[in-house]
Amino acid sequence: MFQFFWTRTASVWVAALYILMGILLFVFPAASSTLFVWALAAGAGAYGLIHLIRYLQARKMGCDNPGDVFLAVLPAAFAAFSLIWPQAVLSVLPLVLGSLLLVDGVGKLPLAYMGVREQHPGMIPMLLSSIIPILLGGLIIINPFTTMQLVVMVFGATLAADGISDLITVIMEKRSAQTIQHHSSI
């Protein structure tokens, strides 16, 4: 089960990305917050543009889809709103980040439980990778509007810790698999 999880979803690259993003959010919380909103606006704008192009191409062929217009206008409106009023987006950011942490932690709970039950070598980092995001995500959701920069710093620290924990679990899993493979070839 652990091998499937690590080869399919949480690779070393994802763990490294979590660590890098976490450090940047922790060290530069104000800039990271604004950059996050700008990146969200750019992503929404690109998504809207793709659907606008798809709509225009389909319209030329006589089989346009009004859903593509909706999927072009809505993200474009969000992008414009985010660029004009980034503070409004930042005001809900703690709830979004807290929710993301909760989803990440809860999603890893079954694997953490299996690791503890089976006394798997990567059980401690996996357990921490599940419990820490749940605790901090819950804390952020309970008290979201105290300090935006603190929330971003906590999210960054948690993201880095989650990435480090995932990376340690990957390393331990690979060592365990190599040990098993070595013993089976003897």
UniProtKB/TrEMBL annotation:
<keyword id="KW-0812">Transmembrane</keyword>
<feature type="transmembrane region" description="Helical">
    <location>
        <begin position="148"/>
        <end position="172"/>
    </location>
</feature>
<dbReference type="InterPro" id="IPR052712">
    <property type="entry name" value="Acid_resist_chaperone_HdeD"/>
</dbReference>
<feature type="transmembrane region" description="Helical">
    <location>
        <begin position="36"/>
        <end position="56"/>
    </location>
</feature>
<keyword id="KW-0472">Membrane</keyword>
<feature type="transmembrane region" description="Helical">
    <location>
        <begin position="91"/>
        <end position="111"/>
    </location>
</feature>
<feature type="transmembrane region" description="Helical">
    <location>
        <begin position="123"/>
        <end position="142"/>
    </location>
</feature>
<dbReference type="InterPro" id="IPR005325">
    <property type="entry name" value="DUF308_memb"/>
</dbReference>
<keyword id="KW-1133">Transmembrane helix</keyword>
<protein>
    <submittedName>
        <fullName>DUF308 domain-containing protein</fullName>
    </submittedName>
</protein>
<feature type="transmembrane region" description="Helical">
    <location>
        <begin position="12"/>
        <end position="30"/>
    </location>
</feature>
<dbReference type="Pfam" id="PF03729">
    <property type="entry name" value="DUF308"/>
</dbReference>
